Amino acid sequence: MVANARSQETVVQILQTVIQDYWNGGDTNGRPKRSGSAIYTNVETAFREASRLMPDRLDLRFGIASSVISQATQTNGQQLEMKVREALQIYQEIQALDTNGFEAPIWYAAYARAIGDTNASDNAIRSLMILDPGRTGEYLQKFNLVDHILRTTPNETPQKEMPKDEHHAIVVLGSGLETNGAMKAKLASRLKQGLRLARRYPRAPIILTGGNQKSGITEAYVMSRWYVRRGIRSKRLILEDKAKDTVENAVFSSAILRRLDATHVTLITSSSHIRRGLADLQEACLQRGLTLEFDPVAAKTKGDADLDPEQERVGIYRDIMRTSGLWAFPGIHR
Fold first, then answer.
1. Over the stretch 70-125, which tens digit does the pLDDT of each residue have?
2. Quick one: 331 exposed, middle or buried, by C-beta within 10 A (0-12, 13-18, 19+)?
3. Are strands 206-209 and 237-240 parallel, antiparallel or unpaired?
């Protein structure tokens, strides 16, 4: 099927409307905000229609697979595995259309490994070793890093003594604000944990990362005001106010860490988020050629339940791939 001009125009409209609605959290144009699973289902539907109109565009098929994975991270158990396997099938279809492509099979290897299908993952890796041994070896190291991080237990206190000089930096990850710009309990607990560390290491710069806006203010701005009111000097605070998610938290913060010439990092976020935040930040730093020592510190929030282990694994594998430079939605969103 050869796409005509009308089909191309329709696909452009789909990507500009339905998909942009997703990037804005499903609450654009005054419509009530939808749940994450509903948003991702709508995104999948949009990409499937776009792919039907332009079947030769592999980026649209990648979009279908990524939206299915996003649905998987909203559930657990058999439903999660069913969704992941649906995405794996799509990656196989892409590989059949692009037999020398690297990205579809490496995504396949990652998600197969995430759900414990080591045979399928290993087979994909063996084929990729023939195609591109150097790049494949790099991703195997990333997979091993993820598995190591997943075996760690979140700690609420630092596990090592950090240097009390400018080479130690504290990174506090943001969390969504209320509609009126007020902070939620989850973010408050992260800030309180960060305050303890800020006082323990009074010379360490503090990176506050989060760019989602509510009522015209960002997470990073709200976080900085909170610290200043508690006596932390504003010159210690470095605001990263562009990040929209954990991957961007890591990518933008790693650039700041490089400028600071940091060698040690204390990372602070919620206990249910700490392993994903750590994996993303380590990978982002490696992408910039930084070899740092990390000390993750978890912030407990009342009612903040632990994630389902398989759900967490899939989420971390998704993030590590995105942080490495692969596009989840090619040309639209890393």
1. 999 999 999 999 999 999 999 999 999 999 999 999 999 999 999 999 999 999 99
2. exposed
3. parallel
Give the model's pLDDT for residue 81.
97
| Domain harbouring 12, CATH code | 1.25.40.10
Q: Which two tokens stand for residue 276?
A: 């994903």
pTM: 0.92
Query: Rounded to an integer, what distance in angstroms lies between the CA atom of residue 121 and that of residue 27?
Result: 38
Task: Give the number of other CB atoms < 10 A from CB of residue 285.
Answer: 23
Residue 191 falls inside a structural domain: yes
User: Which of these, 332, 327, 275, lies nearest to 106 by C-alpha position?
Assistant: 327
Domain extent, residue 252, equals 168-299
Tell me, yes or no, whether 323 lies in a domain: no
Check if the beta carbon of residue 238 is closer than 8 Å to that of residue 275. no
Neighbours of 302 (CB within 10 A): 7
22-32 average pLDDT score: 52
**Residues 288-308: tens digit of each pLDDT:** 999 899 999 999 887 777 789
CA distance 12 to 89: 26
Residues 10 and 135 in one domain: yes
Kindly list the distances between the CA atom of residue 126 and the CA atoms of 26, 121, 138, in Å, as whole numbers in the listed order. 40, 9, 14
pLDDT for position 28: 43
